Automatic annotation (TrEMBL):
Predominant location category: membrane
Quaternary context: F-type ATPases have 2 components, CF(1) - the catalytic core - and CF(0) - the membrane proton channel. CF(1) has five subunits: alpha(3), beta(3), gamma(1), delta(1), epsilon(1). CF(0) has three main subunits: a, b and c.
Subcellular location per the Swiss-Prot or TrEMBL entry: Cell membrane; Membrane
Pfam family, one: ATP-synt
Known function: Produces ATP from ADP in the presence of a proton gradient across the membrane. The gamma chain is believed to be important in regulating ATPase activity and the flow of protons through the CF(0) complex.
PANTHER family the record matches: ATP SYNTHASE GAMMA CHAIN, ATP SYNTHASE SUBUNIT GAMMA, MITOCHONDRIAL
Membrane topology summary: Peripheral membrane protein
Organism: Nocardioides baculatus
Classification via Gene3D superfamilies: 3.40.1380.10, ATP synthase, gamma subunit, helix hairpin domain
Name this protein carries in UniProt: ATP synthase gamma chain
Keyword Transport annotated: yes
Keyword annotations: ATP synthesis, Cell membrane, CF(1), Hydrogen ion transport, Ion transport, Membrane, Transport
Family: Belongs to the ATPase gamma chain family.
Length: 300
């Protein structure tokens, strides 16, 4: 019985050590979420004004651009899947991978071949484990993405879209940050270009600005559209980073709470085992005393 008590005490110590780790990770994630939200908010004005400029060019000119033309019979699509580099974030990566699998099945049901592009080690490991081909992967920045990475990803996707033997559509699957308690896996079509003003409806009197195109609308689109694609990818990476940190904080808080409950359970069982051991020892002593008394009485 004493050995069992020692085992439970060892488990209590190991669980307390684990609790310290999960608590520290929870606090680190909480501190980084604020910075991630600030980065997303800081990037929003640039993305909004760039979207308005692209909308104005598309509205006030009749130029057909390769990034905006709808193919008559699309046969091939590319999907950029934004996951995390590290685990301990609950169902964050698995949720976005499930959304990606639904999109892949939908595109294959439409008769399209699918090329997979990955951001994050979790997504890369997921498809490699299943021996499914990956066109290209980018890793090492999931919780702190930079615009340079978004520009590299955007350039790669634009290149494969413009290639004669490339893809006809480009989709992005990422996790949209709604709040600390809500992160939503989202799939959007990036190319052919669908100019989106944002999630909020514009005001009735919010008219597009009038631009003068110099040297020409075509040249302006050549410059703006790649930047627009890169800014949307950067926005998706920032949203995913904030979502990952929020999911990690929530997962670590749950792990810390579970550790508390487990420690209480182990302490209760250890106390019960200790009390049972004491009771057993007292019973043995009483039994020994009675046996000795009986032996003395018999000898008399």
């Amino acid at each position: 019985m004493a050995l069992s008590v020692r085992e439970y005490r060892a488990r209590i110590r190991s669980t307390e050590s684990m609790k310290k780790i999960t608590r520290a990770m929870e606090l680190i994630a909480a501190s980084r979420i604020i910075k991630a939200q600030q980065r997303a908010q800081a990037a929003a004005p640039y993305a909004r004004e760039l979207t308005r400029a692209v909308s104005a060019v598309a509205t006030f000119s009749n130029v057909d651009h390769a990034l905006t033309l709808e193919p008559e019979d699309p046969k091939r699509a590319a999907i950029l899947i934004v996951t995390s580099d590290r685990g301990l974030a609950g169902a964050y990566s698995s949720s976005v991978l499930k959304e990606a699998e639904r999109l892949i099945e939908k595109l294959k049901g439409e008769g399209k071949d699918v090329d997979i592009y990955i951001s994050g080690r979790k997504g890369e490991a997921y498809f490699k484990f299943r021996q499914r081909a990956i066109a290209q992967a980018w890793t090492g920045f999931s919780d702190q993405p930079t615009y340079d990475v978004a520009a590299e990803i955007g350039a790669t996707l634009i290149e494969t879209f413009l290639d004669e033997d490339g893809v006809d559509e480009v989709h992005v699957v990422y996790t949209r940050f709604r709040s600390m308690l809500s992160q939503e896996p989202t799939a959007v079509r990036l190319l052919p270009l669908e100019v989106v003003e944002g999630t909020e409806a514009p005001e009735k009197d919010d008219l597009l600005p009038l631009y003068e195109f110099e040297p020409s609308p075509s040249d302006v689109l050549d410059s703006l559209l790649p930047r627009y694609v890169q800014s949307r990818i950067f926005f998706a990476l920032l949203q995913a980073a904030a979502s990952e940190l929020a999911a990690r904080q929530k997962a670590m808080k749950s792990a810390t709470d579970n550790a508390d409950e487990l420690i209480k359970k182990y302490k209760r069982i250890a106390n019960q085992a200790r009390q049972a051991g004491i009771t057993q020892e007292i019973s043995e002593i009483v039994g020994g005393v009675n046996a000795l008394a009986d032996a003395q009485a018999g000898s008399e």
